[in-house]
Known about the structure:
The structure holds two protein chains of two kinds. By secondary structure, chain A is an alpha/beta fold. Chain A is built from five helices and 16 strands. The longest helix of chain A has 13 residues, at 191-203. The radius of gyration of chain A is 17 Å and the shape is globular. By secondary structure, chain B is α/β, with parallel strands linked by helices. Chain B has a single domain, classed as Aldolase class I (TIM Barrel). Chain B contains nine helices and 16 strands. Chain B has helices at residues 78-89, 105-116, 138-141, 144-157, 173-182, 221-232, 248-257, 267-270, 274-288; strands spanning 6-8, 11-13, 17-19, 41-47, 60-63, 66-69, 95-100, 123-127, 161-165, 187-190, 194-197, 199-200, 205-206, 212-216, 239-241, 261-264. In chain B, the strands form four sheets. Chain B has an eight-stranded parallel β-barrel with strand order 3-4-7-8-9-10-15-16, surrounded by six helices. A four-stranded antiparallel β-sheet of chain B has the order 5-6-14-11, with no helix packed on it. In chain B, strands 1-2 form a two-stranded antiparallel sheet. In chain B, helix 4 packs parallel to helix 5 (173-182) and helix 7 packs across helix 9 (274-288). The complex binds flavin-adenine dinucleotide, flavin mononucleotide and FE2/S2 (inorganic) cluster.
Amino acid sequence: MKHCDNFIVSEKKFLNQSFYKLKLKATKPLPEIKAGQFVEVQVNSDSKVLLRRPISINDVDYQTNELSLIIQTVGQGTKELAKISIGEEVNLVYPLGNGFEVKGESVLLIGGGVGIAPLLYLAKQFNAKGVKADVLLGFRSQEQMISLDEFEKCANVYVSTQDGSVGEKGLVTENSIFSKSHDIIYTCGPTPMMKAISENALKNNIECYASLENKMACGIGACLCCVQNTTEGHKCTCTEGPVFNAKDIIW
Amino acid sequence: MEKLKIQLGNLEFQNPVMTASGTFGFGLEYEDFFDVQKLGAIIVKGTTGEKREGNPAPRMCETPMGMINAVGLQNKGVDYFCQHTYHEIKHYKTNVIVNVSGSTIEEYIKVAEKINELEHIPAIELNISCPNVKKGGMGFGTDPKMAAEVVEAVRKIYKKHLIVKLSPNVTSIAEIAKAVEGAGADSVSMINTVLGMAIDAEKRKPLLSTITAGLSGPAIKPIGLRCVYQTSKAVKIPIIGLGGITNATDAIEYILAGASAIQIGTQNFVNPRIGLEVVEGMKEYLDRHNLSHIWDIKGVI
Ligand SMILES: Cc1cc2nc3c(=O)[nH]c(=O)nc-3n(C[C@H](O)[C@H](O)[C@H](O)COP(=O)(O)OP(=O)(O)OC[C@H]3O[C@@H](n4cnc5c(N)ncnc54)[C@H](O)[C@@H]3O)c2cc1C
Ligand SMILES: Cc1cc2nc3c(=O)[nH]c(=O)nc-3n(C[C@H](O)[C@H](O)[C@H](O)COP(=O)(O)O)c2cc1C
Ligand code: FES
């Protein structure tokens, strides 16, 4: 069941120059939320931004009834949302999308840029099942990095930066952990990165799931704006995704 | 809510608020948010003779107070609708109206004939105004002769309430409306999206796969109001007004301009409960102004 409710901003933190984290407190008990699901955030109702913005759920705390989001400022909507203050209300439609299936014993989660957001909740769910995931995070440079403490608590963390300022230098597909064998790869990040990972995984017969970030309007399967071309034709990223089996995606 | 009850031709509506085709799925998508049966009507996604995949991605982008879409009539085809989707929505205790599209007159006839057989579909909305398909679609809606031809052909075989949806991308929408009225339409709805375009200056590329596509949302409300106003002076059949409605006040403006009923499109994406809020807001407006029926203010401008 999908909901449309006001949440209260309980915490706001800038993680680096362009990423910020919002903790949002629900006013009623949260429904069950799967890793990889997302919310549609309404930017202030008197703003110039019209449509909601889809943002992945970064973490869920059922005890305090809070959701976390990590947002990168890229345009008007994410900039306006960055101005919100603690105690203010924000309206969400949630939880949306299919989410990741938490399966496999030896798993690799690969995030690029703000695409690392949904992987924290996923890594925690693996950890809860007794599986310590390998998590490979790619950033352009140190400036784009965020603290990885929370990942380190529940997973083995590896880092690639394009300029070599932290971790291994180069793309995530060039990181040494990438060539270690895993049962399943989960990825979220820029399209060229996910495409390279998927192609590589399929070549090596590794199951691979990618969480796509197609442009959305409604987020609930009503407008058909967000389709991804797949081996079975156009599929809605907001309802049949955002997580797709890489073998079905036509990039 | 007697104040909001209306009748268009032979068809009764518990209130004048409908959800626009392509923005409300089949109603099912919104069931979690409110009782969709409280709407005056639900107009479902454009349906064609055969399954269509629609246009390639990217299919949408936001523009100042609006959005441009290039979905292009993606749908599973009329047979799938009749055999499957219809059975999921036929129990709705409100009017479920099918938006009928096509590339040829034969295709419009084929779809209309099949929908005519469905007991719980009391009306169709003939979409002769879609800007997002290569053949047909808007072609029929931009020429009065062709518009009359397709409406006449469908009128012959379609026995229930026939709404014809018009495009604003014409020199005189009133002239097209007169032509479809003459051809037997029971009512007209307007406006479909306004042909527009968006460009990414940094990448020096269009933002949509089809380059030009349909603009909707608050940005087009003044165009919609103008079209309804001009048409209301030219035809006798009722007009269903839409384009950029985001609240009850916008809806009231359409009624003042001459519309008998209204539809809500893009705003469903922003506020999934907007349909219900507009019904309640219209009622509140009538109470506040001591009016006994919504049509008391119809076309007063
Ligand atoms: C399922 C899903 C989950 C997402 N999760 C997150 C998340 O956890 N954190 C986060 O920061 N962002 C996430 N995004 C991307 C986010 O929705 C966009 O960055 C945001 O909508 C941009 O809004 P804006 O108004 O700031 O930018 P706009 O003014 O809309 O656009 C500015 C720039 O951002 C690009 N852009 C717009 N929409 C998207 C998009 N959907 N994907 C990629 N680029 C886009 C545009 O092409 C443009 O260049 C997610 C997207 C989806 C579909
Ligand atoms: C994503 C999207 C899909 C649409 N699909 C259809 C369609 O299939 N048939 C149709 O007649 N109109 C379609 N429309 C047009 C709307 O029904 C409506 O005429 C238009 O959006 C203007 O109203 P609005 O400004 O309230 O959105 C679509 C609009 C949008 C935004
Ligand atoms: S965003 Fe509307 S169908 Fe996916």
